[in-house]
């Protein structure tokens, strides 16, 4: 089982006939731990007369490609990487309306931190580009730190983390061509704490040694992937299981209700 993308019902900046509507379904997908974070952050903001109003969450390959093209052409000022480089593609990044939170950005950072959502800028300055962007890195932060400390250098740390998160949802990352499963296997081993050099989709001696360290026999790719997935689910259960929340005070539907509505 790969990390599922669950539907989520959240307020959005978008309107239809002048009336605010929920985040469009094509964007309203996220990982289970991101769903938990969104619901919990919103509940805290509502208690302070604010709200969590989103402008972006999940992006498909085509949506990310268009966002990147808009950035390259100058139509969009905020940086947007090519497909394979954004946590939006894994349902682990969200953009929000800062005007709706009704608290300071530094206070929002503290709320986000409690629920595993972190900013991508260094200081809580609402005037800074990307002040509205938050990531729920989950176990993929292990990949970020792995690259940051120099265990591999074929990608920048943030890109490596995004690649890991995207592969975990079984979405294609172009750079690995026909080696998607091998790349997922490697990223999974890194998330489990093993060292194998670069995540490049090539099963060499270092990856084989990491498999042995994980107690996984060198067999078929499918069998090795399943073994890694089993360990990942045991280590990081919140990234695989639906929270199935019902927040009565906010009228927030449960996950099962949201799925049924699709």
UniProtKB/TrEMBL annotation:
The protein's superkingdom reads Bacteria
Q: Which InterPro entries match?
A: Zn_M74/Hedgehog-like
Q: Which Gene3D superfamilies does the record associate with it?
A: 3.30.1380.10
What is the name of this protein? Peptidase M15B domain-containing protein
Q: Which organism is it from?
A: Azospirillum argentinense
The top of its lineage is: Bacteria, Pseudomonadati, Pseudomonadota, Alphaproteobacteria, Rhodospirillales
């Amino acid at each position: 089982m790969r990390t599922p993308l669950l539907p989520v019902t959240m307020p959005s900046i978008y309107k239809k006939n002048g009336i605010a509507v929920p985040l469009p379904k094509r964007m309203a997908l996220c990982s289970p731990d991101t769903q938990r974070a969104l619901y919990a952050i919103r509940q805290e903001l509502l208690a302070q007369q604010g709200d969590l109003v989103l402008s972006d969450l999940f992006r498909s390959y085509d949506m990310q490609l268009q966002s990147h093209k808009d950035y390259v052409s100058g139509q969009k000022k905020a940086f947007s990487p090519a497909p394979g480089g954004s946590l939006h593609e894994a349902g682990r990044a969200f953009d929000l309306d800062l005007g709706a939170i009704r608290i300071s950005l530094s206070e929002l950072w503290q709320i986000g931190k409690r629920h595993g959502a972190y900013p991508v800028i260094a200081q809580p300055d609402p005037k800074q580009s990307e002040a509205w962007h938050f990531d729920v890195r989950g176990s993929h932060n292990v990949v970020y730190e792995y690259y940051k400390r120099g265990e591999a250098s074929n990608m920048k740390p943030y890109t490596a983390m995004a690649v890991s998160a995207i592969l975990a949802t079984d979405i294609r990352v172009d750079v690995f061509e026909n080696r998607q499963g091998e790349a997922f296997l490697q990223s999974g081993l890194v998330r489990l704490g093993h060292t194998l050099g670069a995540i490049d989709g090539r099963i060499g001696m270092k990856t084989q040694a990491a498999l042995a360290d994980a107690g996984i026999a060198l067999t078929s790719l499918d069998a090795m992937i399943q073994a890694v997935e089993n360990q990942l689910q045991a280590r990081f259960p919140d990234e695989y299981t639906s929270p199935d929340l019902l927040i009565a005070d906010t009228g927030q539907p449960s996950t099962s209700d949201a799925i049924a509505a699709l």
